[in-house]
């Protein structure tokens, strides 16, 4: 059963808790993007590039999560 919780994180060279922290940070930034997009849909002059920039940052982190310059 333990392998169910550790197999994927280990495949990413992370411990269970490192992977959990990474995923929670990622989820919190995505949640922030959802909020900003809702605001932007009503007021298109607000958050004009912010969400795109955050999504690009997250994409880069997924490509190389160990690159500390992208944190």
Describe it for me?
The protein is mostly helical and 71 residues long. It has three helices and no strands. It has helices spanning 2-11, 16-42, 50-63. The longest helix is centred in the middle third of the chain and has 27 residues, at 16-42. The radius of gyration is 15 Å and the shape is elongated. The protein starts with a helix and ends in an 8-residue tail after the last helix. The model has no long low-confidence stretch (mean pLDDT 90).
Give the secondary structure arrangement, pairings included.
Layout: H1 2-11, H2 16-42, H3 50-63
Helix pairs in contact: 2-3
Structural category is mainly alpha
Relative strand content: under 5%
For the termini, the CA-CA separation is 32 Å
As a percent range, the share of helical residues equals over 70%
Order of helices and strands: HHH
- Total number of strands: 0
């Amino acid at each position: 059963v333990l392998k169910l919780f550790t197999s994927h994180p280990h495949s990413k060279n992370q411990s269970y808790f490192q992977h959990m922290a990474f995923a929670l940070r990622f989820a919190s930034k995505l949640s922030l993007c959802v909020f900003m997009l809702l605001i932007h849909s009503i007021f298109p002059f607000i958050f004009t590039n912010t969400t795109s920039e955050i999504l690009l940052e997250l994409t880069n982190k997924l490509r190389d999560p160990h690159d500390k310059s992208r944190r």
